[in-house]
Amino acid sequence: MEKLTTGVIGLGALGKPISALLLKAGHAVAVYDVRSEPVAELQKLGATACTSPADVAQRSDIVVSLVLDQAQTDEIVFGENGLLNHCRPGAILAIGSTLGPAPVKRIATELAKQSVEVLDMPISGGILAAREGKLSLMVGGTPATLERALPVLQVFASQITRTGEVGSGQAAKLAHQLVFGLNVMALLEGLALGIAGGVEPDVLKNVLKQGLANSTVLQVWHDLGPRWKGMLEASAPGTPPPNLRKDLHLVLEFARELGVDLHLGSEASRVADGGIATGHDDLRA
Questions:
Q1: How many angstroms separate the CA atoms of 75 and 64, rounded?
Q2: 124 has which bridge partners?
């Protein structure tokens, strides 16, 4: 099967290792980021360095967008040097960012006018899974579009689930992030309680792993726990919220649109925004 030329826009925690895996698998990869450092690193591995999203679009059969949020996504799609008028007819844009259903539906509608297909493709798994090619994708889009993209997606994802049409991937991701965020905060509080009661941290974690309180979050806590805790700490006014807090905001916005009450989710978002989540899981904190 002929390999698609793949463009990757956004070379952060996921985009950089995903690009490296695609290159290792023999794919032609075009990359762009507002920062020059990751572009230069990937160029040394064989990627084509691009000067704009439009440059990526002109070179690619499938573009994977992994930028931070809706504002950045709108810029790379609709901006002066964006994808909108530069993608190849028949190309695919796979949106890996967590944005909520409405923005990806709007993008899909506009790109369809240029004969470009969209996959709504939020990602779960984090940095470690990205490096190992074991990410999980929840994909909204037509079965035919997903089938065309599979040779690329299977390089960096071990679990690919079609959730329905465009927008459904975002709905699934927001449900996932609600449960994930609550899990992180519940684990921090449970650890704080047990440690304060005199149980050694490692002993307490083993107890949790052996019971119904076990979770994937707990299993990878040694490697990723500090990163998640950092997302719950107070941040300077006016600075963008870390991903976990940003996603909880999207969860609540989506719930309001649907008329769904999220009592725990609302409280979790309030605690996260206030920087008051219990933040330690060892005796030295």
A1: 15
A2: 136
| Pair of tokens at residue 257 | 């649109």
Last residue of a domain, one of 108, 139, 166: 166
Six token digits for residue 49: 């360095």
Reading the block at residue 222, the tokens are: 């040694």
Pick the closest to residue 141 from 123, 119, 121 (CA basis).
119
Instruction: Specify the higher pLDDT residue, 2 or 96.
Output: 96
Domain finish residue from 119, 137, 166: 166
Of 3, 44, 105, 173, the catalytic one is 173
- Which pLDDT score is estimated for 252? 98
Using one digit for the tens of pLDDT, what is the confidence trace for 230-243? 899 888 888 888 99
CB atoms closer than 10 angstroms to residue 4: 18
pTM greater than the 0.90 cutoff:
yes
Kindly tell me if the per-residue pLDDT of 263 is higher than 70.
yes
Count of structural domains within the chain: 2
Residue type present at position 10: G
For residue 9, give the 3-state DSSP assignment: strand
Q: Beta partners for 140? A: 120, 164
Clarify whether 173 is annotated catalytic.
yes
Q: CB burial class (10 A; 0-12, 13-18, 19+) of residue 68?
A: middle
H/E stretch holding 226 reads: helix 221-231
- Return the CA Rg of the chain: 20
The pLDDT score that the predictor gives to residue 239 is: 86
